[in-house]
Amino acid sequence: SFAYFTIKDRLPQILTRVIDTLHRHKNEFFEEHGEKGVEAEKRAISFLSKLRNELQTDKPVTPLEDELPDAALWNQYLDYQRNLSNGNGEPSWFQSPWLYVECYMYRRIHAALVHNPPIDNFDVFKEGKAQNFFESQEAVIALCTYFQELLKNIKDLDERQLQEELFKLLQVSLWGNKCDLSFSAGEDRSQKSSLLQSLEDMMPYILVNDMEKLWSLLVNTKKRNTEKSNVRVDIILDNAGFELVSDLVLADFLLLSKLVDEVHFHGKSIPWYVSDTTKHDFNWTIKQLQSANHMWMSRCGINWEGNLKKGVWVYCDHMFWTLPHDFSSMAEVAPDLHADLQKSNLLLFKGDLNYRKLTGDRKWEYSVPFHQALNRFHPAPLCSLRTLKSDTQVGLKPGQGEQIQASEPEWMVSGKYGVVQFDAVL
């Protein structure tokens, strides 16, 4: 299965890159922390080399031994996996659900650093994320320029034109999700050219397109909420770099078109899946745009800093996003987060990992309804913007998946296809 090749080939590659990154920063650790820094680097590398060996030789998954607040939840989840195996031996790297062991590897990478101060705050993926941002510069400039030009006449747009612009920016945010470094094991996945030019050509590759439903929801919510309360959209982020910029543009458009009053962004509390957005990445990206020597890029950065100061944009992270649990167990495992999401008028889930957690990462029939696969996870109306990079997909028309499969066996994992898949709360 695709899962098998991911665990066998891609994850060891990622670990090797992490070890290499630490090794390359050895002098920097020495300059900052002296011998202590070098000792910490050696210990972290030894921990990660052992982890890589466990993975490659299909050893049992071991409980976490750190004192971090999520350790108990991880270890309970391991017990749950043990019970699932009905005494057929310990859960091991190749004999466990892909989603679980993949998340577990990233959590262990985090442990390798946290255990080894003074380098415990070092993000082993930071360089790759920064590089992705700089290599996507042309696409970022094109998007910021388009957006700032659009804002000049946003007040004069009628409803149909607003809808058209929203659909464009939703598609840019969707296809921005191709830039995923965990998918390429850290190889370059930057967005080299402007996406806006190719939206028309990519339209046939959107397998489920519920943009009309999103539009209706936003317009009707706005009409109902004239005075009462703020209309709020939450974006559950995926990758830093170009994708994050496309999400920020979409969020600002929602505000400035007066479709919503506030946007809450949810990122990861620890470095995750190579290129996932952390608070540092979020703030760093806005700072980079602010200080860019391109007029429209810096205008975006300045305005977005302003949105955060005014409180119309809110950034939050929660440990639940870096647990192995499906979202259907959120109400039980993270009731505070679930209650917060219930205050939202719309949840936008970005990317493949969020889709896998929404649908329990199961091998569903393609035509199973999205609503059913969510397994009672409905804190608010929600929509997944996702390019397909793993073999789980629901909500297709009968025969649609089989038809593509016949001519393109790799269709579910190539990132070539996407969905804008909506589910209202019933």
TrEMBL record:
Task: Determine if Nucleotide-binding is one of this entry's keywords.
Answer: no
| Catalyzed reactions per annotation | beta-D-fructose 1-phosphate + H2O = D-fructose + phosphate; L-glutamyl-[protein] + S-adenosyl-L-methionine = [protein]-L-glutamate 5-O-methyl ester + S-adenosyl-L-homocysteine; beta-D-fructose 6-phosphate = dihydroxyacetone + D-glyceraldehyde 3-phosphate
Q: Which gene encodes it?
A: Armt1
Q: Would you tell me the protein name for this molecule?
A: Sugar phosphate phosphatase
Its function, per the record, reads: Metal-dependent phosphatase that shows phosphatase activity against several substrates, including fructose-1-phosphate and fructose-6-phosphate. Its preference for fructose-1-phosphate, a strong glycating agent that causes DNA damage rather than a canonical yeast metabolite, suggests a damage-control function in hexose phosphate metabolism. Has also been shown to have O-methyltransferase activity that methylates glutamate residues of target proteins to form gamma-glutamyl methyl ester residues. Possibly methylates PCNA, suggesting it is involved in the DNA damage response.
Record remark on domains: Subfamily III proteins have a conserved RTxK motif about 40-50 residues from the C-terminus; the threonine may be replaced by serine or cysteine.
Give the keywords, sorted: Hydrolase, Manganese, Metal-binding, Methyltransferase, Nickel, S-adenosyl-L-methionine, Transferase
UniProt GO MF annotations: metal ion binding; phosphatase activity; protein carboxyl O-methyltransferase activity
Which residue numbers delimit the Damage-control phosphatase ARMT1-like metal-binding domain? Answer: 6-404
Pfam families reported for this sequence = ARMT1-like_dom
